[in-house]
Each structure stands twice: as C-alpha cells, then as structure tokens.
Amino acid sequence: MDPNADIPAVTFNVVGGPVGPLYPGAPASPVEYAVTNFGSSPVHLGSVATSITGTSVAGCNAAWFTIYGTQPHTLNMTFPTGTTIVTNTGTTIALTTKPFTQDTCQNATVTLTFSGAK
Q1: Of 12, 54, 11, whose CA–CA distance to 33 is shortest?
Q2: N or C: which end of the chain has fewer CB within 10 A?
C-alpha cells in the first residue's frame, strides 16, 4: 500500500490568477498554490510536486514548458481542519525556447497538477 495514498481531504488550487506571460525567452513565472484541508482531522504534507499535464490548445505541446525549482518541494506542514494555506514554493514555469515556431502556444492555458506526499 502506498503510504502517501491516504490524503483524501486535501485539495490544491493555483492562486493569484493566470501565470504569465509565457513566451519563448520570457522570464519564468512563479507558481503559487493554496492547500485546503476539507477533512475532519489535521493533515500533514511532507512535500508537494508540481507537474505540467497539458495545454488548452491543440499543437501546443506541454513538453515545451519547464517547471523550475526543487521537485518535489519540501513543505513539512500540518494543515488544521477547515484551513487554507497559500504557499510560495519557489516553483516557476517557463516556455522553453525551441528551434522551431511555438506560435500555437499563444493564449494557451497550461494545466498544472499538484501531488502531495506525507
């Protein structure tokens, strides 16, 4: 059994609005997220990993984007019942410059996924 599988009450949400602008050569943009404990008891998170799982535009490849910062990010926090805590992890995202046009990524939304471990 996976020791990290039992974190049912925790949700992750990107905060601060859209990240950007993301274009080849632009500085990496910070990714902040909020962790909410909807459960009936405190939940401890040892670390959180951020990954890119897709984009909103066909032809804009998620692999063209890069997550910077230590992954997973060490959090080592306990979240009391009913609380939301915003974290600044030092994680950033950028559209990596490639030797071909990346125009398909103009106005694309990048889907981020967060996973927590005890």
Answers
A1: 12
A2: N
